[in-house]
């Protein structure tokens, strides 16, 4: 596995490769990322992973500074997953002085966009930049970030990118919690409380199958968790039940598919 | 010369060509466009011209409906200029139902951006879409649209597009008026009045060379034209004197370089 730290090195390492799979990450790689890397490895000739904690997608007071960073362990995991190129850009090159171009995908981020103003602008802009540097054939995202997927799919369609967005099912720990870099923030007792989130979503899905309100059932099962939102969102053929909660200082999101493809 | 009307046809016609020159136009081709096509023909192996009157860059009450359209004459001119592929997209494919992704380049459009809210958002978005469909090596723009060039250059830099922006000097009629599709709107007497615009800019440039205010000298030479703005703008090494005026119902822009490269 090669590691590149500049755009020029990255373009040079990619050379004339085509059939490129991209797995964009913020590092702190976990089993969810490994599932993305595995899918990319299965489907593409050349796999690029990126590690970039993107300041533009964090709001004031969010966890940009304390977001977990462990490049050495990430590089080891990426190499074992068969990544060909690991791109670790510097903030200074991605957002140089005078940077001022932003991509906005309107009316797609749902409640998550309302809860985190500017978040999806940062996500859309960095993803487009990475797409332009790497020119992937396919890019891989995890179902846990359902609103992000909706935003990126809309961006790809509207901006006529020749790129396939691949969605990989959410990976869960044995206790049901969706794996996330932010789970590292949880104390043991917070982690126990956090299990109410996947359980509430499962209760919502069960209620939906019985023709009842998924949102009401999920809300009733949150077991005292501080709920940012619980909402149904529809993307094309898919209907999802999505929620964000706070456990102590930690904000967690998760979702289940009520109807549709994946 | 081939003509394509869909993105799929365009991608198929381009195939594996590289070293592609793109000349994006709104049609009504004039000597200014021909200079762009000539530069592209000189420098690139495969030349693509596009004709698309982009509704997103026209404001309410502007001239989208009456903007001149003559595809037959344009195709003839493009073929004679050695264009390999003429892409004439449909509004319905470029802005399908549900389109909602926009590119904003902040703080770059200067007085022109203030005078035409939303204009450069429309320009930036359509240019990025065309870049993504055509993947050009170089794209050609005329110096007359100086703010547009500044916006597109900033977009290319910030979004990490692997693309060179080439600027071709403004083409002028023998009387000094910069050629523009909108000159077709002018009555003979309006055209006579409009000549005050290039003369005022020349007066501004002469004053600047003598250490005086270019803006004041230009303003004093506008000869009764209704001035939207006269302003100096600086881009990197270049300092320009730019103006927009109204002659009857017609809005015209022009500029001269006071100092710098081109």
Describe this structure in words.
- In chain A, 37% of the residues lie in helices and 24% in strands.
- In chain A, helix 6 crosses helix 7 and helix 9 runs antiparallel to helix 10.
- The first copy, chain A, has 10 helices and 10 strands.
- The first copy, chain A, is globular.
- Chain A folds into 2 domains: 2-168, HUPs (Rossmann fold), CATH 3.40.50; 181-256, 2-Layer Sandwich (Pantoate--beta-alanine Ligase, Chain: A,domain 2).
- Chain A has a 6-stranded parallel beta sheet, with helices on both faces. In chain A, strands 8-9-10 form a 3-stranded antiparallel beta sheet.
- In chain A, helix 3 (71-80) links the parallel strand 3 and strand 4 (85-87).
- Chain A binds chain B through residues 7, 11, 99-108, 124-125, 128-129, 132-133, 154-155, 157-162, and chain B through 7, 11, 99-108, 124-125, 128-129, 132-133, 154-155, 157-162.
């Amino acid at each position: 596995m090669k590691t590149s730290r500049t755009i020029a090195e990255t373009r040079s390492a990619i050379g004339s490769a085509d059939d490129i799979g991209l797995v964009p990450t913020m590092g702190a790689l976990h089993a969810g990322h490994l599932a993305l890397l595995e899918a990319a490895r299965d489907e593409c000739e050349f796999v690029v992973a990126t590690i970039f904690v993107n300041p533009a997608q964090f709001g004031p007071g969010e966890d940009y500074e304390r977001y977990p960073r462990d490049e050495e362990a990430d590089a080891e995991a990426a190499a074992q997953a068969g990544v060909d190129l690991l791109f670790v850009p510097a903030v200074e090159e991605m957002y140089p002085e005078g940077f001022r171009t932003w991509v906005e995908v309107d009316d797609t981020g749902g409640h998550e966009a309302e809860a985190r103003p500017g978040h999806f602008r940062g996500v859309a802009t960095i993803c487009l930049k990475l797409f332009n540097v790497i020119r992937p054939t396919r890019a891989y995202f995890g179902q846990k970030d359902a609103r992000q997927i909706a935003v990126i799919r809309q961006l790809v369609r509207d901006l006529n990118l020749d790129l396939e967005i691949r969605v990989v099912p959410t990976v869960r720990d044995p206790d049901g919690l969706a794996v996330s870099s932010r789970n590292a923030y949880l104390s043991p007792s917070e982690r126990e409380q956090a299990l109410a989130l996947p359980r509430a979503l499962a209760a919502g899905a069960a209620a939906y199958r019985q023709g009842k309100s998924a949102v009401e059932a999920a809300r009733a099962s949150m077991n005292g968790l501080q709920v940012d939102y619980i909402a149904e969102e529809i993307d094309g053929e898919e209907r999802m039940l999505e929620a964000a909660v706070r456990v102590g200082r930690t904000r967690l999101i998760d979702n289940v598919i009520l109807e549709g493809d994946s």
